[in-house]
Amino acid sequence: MDLGIKGKRALVCASSKGLGLGCARALAEAGVDLVMNARGAEALEASAQAIRDDFGVEVTTVACDVTTPEGQEKVISAAQGVDILVTNAGGPPPGKWTDWDREDFIKALDANMLTPIAFIKALVPGMMERGWGRVVNITSQSVKAPIPVLGLSNSARAGLTGYVAGTARQVAGKGVNINNLQPGIHATDRADSLDKGVSEAQSISLDEARAQRAATIPAGRYGTAEEFGATCAFLCSQHAGFIVGQNILLDGGAINATM
Ligand code: NAP
Fold first, then answer.
1. Tell me, what's a Pfam family for it (predicted)?
2. Which residues contact 141 (CB under 8 A, 6 or more apart)?
3. Is the CB–ligand 1 distance for residue 74 below 6 Å?
């Protein structure tokens, strides 16, 4: 399917690896030029070069921490005029509800709620002026069904989802569509580190921890960054113009719910 976005320009935050990289590659395959970001310059540049080689699109890299005001300033200045924004950052660490103090919450809110909001506020007005735009926020299945050890993530991402629900409906009339993608377990470094936590907590091997977690998914496996990226590219396509303020769950059926 032709996504109809060849020649557009996208910012994909936190995209040297994992789900962000899946989104960047799928958009590049559709002919979209990119601004990519991550903290580690080496992995970022390697992923950017692979995209240039594979898809022939233009890729600008900005190596910085996207959750800091300085990082946001750098990325936003490189991304002026983008048509597509994919927000993403690392997820907060797991723990127990009694562990987290104010500082932990502020950090999680900064990374997974206030950072995407800062990017939306900076880049969506230009999209509205130009009459076309797409924003996809990478959130989590934890918005729909809480993951007890990820209370910081549950809280911050639910806050972002509330903001998007109202904002998406205020900008849709100007051709700008904002939606959230909710990943369930996907095979990335983040999943590896959560598998490791399970393996240590239960004194089982990493393979056993992985099998245990995969068994909770009706599809019987973890999702892939490629599948995730393809869904993101569709949401950024010309065909997704009537999808407004939605939360699209990609979890292999893990959340047992009718809707
Ligand atoms: P990942 O494989 O660990 O990749 C994270 C990417 O983000 C890397 O490119 C990393 O590069 C970059 N990054 C992390 N923190 C950053 C920061 N502060 N500033 C700029 N770049 C940053 O993670 P993932 O699995 O793709 O997860 C992406 C998001 O989805 C996370 O918020 C995660 O919590 C959420 N999620 C993931 C899953 C899953 O199963 N994978 C499920 C639900 C939700 P650097 O380290 O070099 O910065």
1. adh_short_C2
2. 147, 182, 183, 184, 249, 251, 254, 255
3. no
Residue nearest ligand 1's atom 44 by CA? 140
CA dist., res. 121 & res. 177, Å (int):
14
- pTM exceeds cut of 0.90: yes
Contact 180, 246 (CB under 8 A): yes
Q: Is 37 in the pocket of ligand 1 (CB under 6 A)?
A: yes
Take atom 40 of ligand 1 and give the residue whose Cα is closest: 185
User: Can you give the pLDDT at residue 183?
Assistant: 98
Architecture of the structural domain at 9-184+223-249: 3-Layer(aba) Sandwich (3.40)
User: Rounded mean pLDDT of 165-173?
Assistant: 98
Rounded CA-CA distance 133/32 in Å is: 13
Is 66's C-beta closer than 6 angstroms to any atom of ligand 1? yes
Predicted local distance difference test score (pLDDT) of residue 190: 86
pLDDT at 194: 87
For 10, 36, 147, the CA distances from 20, given in Å and listed in that order, are 12, 9, 21
Tell which residue, 142, 40, 156, has the closest CA to residue 87.
Answer: 156
Nearest protein CA to atom 25 of ligand 1, as residue: 190
Instruction: Give yes or no for residue 116 CB within 6 A of ligand 1.
Output: no
Domain ranges of the chain: 9-184+223-249
Alpha-carbon distance values, 154 to 95, 97, 108, 172 (Å): 12, 11, 10, 27
Q: How far apart are CA 5 and CA 233, in angstroms?
A: 9
